[in-house]
Amino acid sequence: MNIDGVPHRSVWVDAEDGWSVHIFDQTRLPWAVEILRLTHEDEVAHAIRSMQVRGAPLIGAVAAYGLALALRRDASDAALESVAAMLGETRPTAINLRWALARMLEALRPVAPAARVAAAYAAADAIAEDDVATCRAIGQHGLPLIQAIAARKPGKPVNILTHCNTGWIATVDYGTALSVIYQAHDAGIPVHVWVDETRPRNQGSNLTAWELGKHGVPHTVIADNAGGHLMQHGEVDIVLVGTDRVTRNGDVANKIGTYLKALAAHDNKVPFWVALPHSTLDMSVRDGLREIPIEERAAEEVLTVTGRTEAGEVVTVRTAAPGSPGANPAFDVTPARLVTGLITERGRCEASEAGLLRLYPEFVAEPEFVEEAAN
C-alpha cells in the first residue's frame, strides 16, 4: 500500500545484502517512520514481544524470516527446533505465528543442513507472498458488502466502524478488514471510517488513522466507547474488524474491546463482519472463551499514554492515579452468535463450523493441530 503515493510492504529482505530483514518500527508510528534492520533471531523475538512489529499475519511472516536468519549461523536440526520454539513463545494469542513456524518446520526438516538457509528464505518468501495474495482476495470478497450499502444510499458515504489496526502495517500488504476499505475507496466508492482509538496502545488512533490518512481515505478518530452511541443514531452502516484467531465454531478472538462493539452492533442491527486469512483459523479449538489463551500485557500500558508535545517531543506520561494498579488483557473473544459473517480469501460465510467447512472442506475431519512450533 502507499505512504504518500509510494508503495511499501511491511517486511522485506534487504535488496543489497540479500539476507537481512527490514520492518517498520510500529512503536514509533505515527510520530516517525523508522525502518529497523533485523540480523538475528533475538532481534526478531524482541521486535515481536515489544510490538515493534505486530498484527497477527505479519508476526508470522517476520518470525519465518527470523528462523531463516538463525539458520545462517547454525543450520543444525537442534538449532532449527530450538529457534522455532523460542519464536513461537513470543505472542500466545495470534495463531498465525504458530501456523507460520509449523509451515517452516514442515518445509525445512527434510532438507539437509547445508541447503537449509536457501530453503528457509524461499519458504519465508512464500509465506509473505501468500499473505499478500490472501489479503488482496479478502478485500475483493468484502467489497460487495460496501457496494451494496453504497447502492442503498446514493451520494452519501458508507460509514464503517473499525477497531484496532487491520491494515497493511498489520500484514505484509493490503490488510484484512482494511483491505476491504482500501479496495472500496480505490474503486471510487465514497467511504468514511470511524477509527476506534483502541486503548491502551492506541493502534487505531496511531496506526489505522496514519494508514488511512497516507492513503487518502476519509476517517475520524473516536473514543473507544463512542461506537455504540454512533450506532444508536444511525451513523454506522457496517462494522469491519480483523481477528487473531477464529475457532472451528466461529468464535473470534480480537483486540480487547471488540466484544463490546459486537454487542452494540447486535443490539442496533448493524452488520458485524470479521475479515481473516486462512492462517488465522484454529480448527482444533471449538470453544473460544474456554480454550483461547489471552495475552496479559504490562499494566504500564494502561496506566500511561504516549504522545507528542506541541514542541514535537514524544513523551510517555502517567494518566492513572498514583499508586493505582492496572490490569491489561490484550484480547477478548466475541462469540459466533454475534458475528454476522466471516470474510476470507475464499469468500464469505457464516460464523459457524458449517460455514467454515463450506469454504475449507479440507478440515472436515477433526484435525490434530500441529504443535511443533510451540513445543
Automatic annotation (TrEMBL):
The record marks 164 as: Transition state stabilizer. It catalyses: 5-(methylsulfanyl)-alpha-D-ribose 1-phosphate = 5-(methylsulfanyl)-D-ribulose 1-phosphate; 5-deoxy-alpha-D-ribose 1-phosphate = 5-deoxy-D-ribulose 1-phosphate. The keyword Membrane does not apply. GO terms for biological process: L-methionine salvage from methylthioadenosine. Keywords: Amino-acid biosynthesis, Isomerase, Methionine biosynthesis. The active site is at residue 244. GO terms for molecular function: S-methyl-5-thioribose-1-phosphate isomerase activity. InterPro entries: IF-2B-related, IF-M1Pi, IF_2B-like_C, Initiation_fac_2B_a/b/d, M1Pi_N, NagB/RpiA_transferase-like. Gene3D superfamilies: translation initiation factor eif-2b, domain 1, Translation initiation factor eif-2b, domain 2. Its EC number is 5.3.1.23. Substrate binds at residues 54-56, 91, 203, 254-255. It is an enzyme of class 5 (isomerase). Pathway: Amino-acid biosynthesis; L-methionine biosynthesis via salvage pathway; L-methionine from S-methyl-5-thio-alpha-D-ribose 1-phosphate: step 1/6. Catalyzes the interconversion of methylthioribose-1-phosphate (MTR-1-P) into methylthioribulose-1-phosphate (MTRu-1-P). Also catalyzes the interconversion of 5-deoxyribose 1-phosphate and 5-deoxyribulose 1-phosphate. Part of a bifunctional DHAP-shunt salvage pathway for SAM by-products. Belongs to the EIF-2B alpha/beta/delta subunits family. MtnA subfamily. This is Methylthioribose-1-phosphate isomerase. The gene is mtnA.
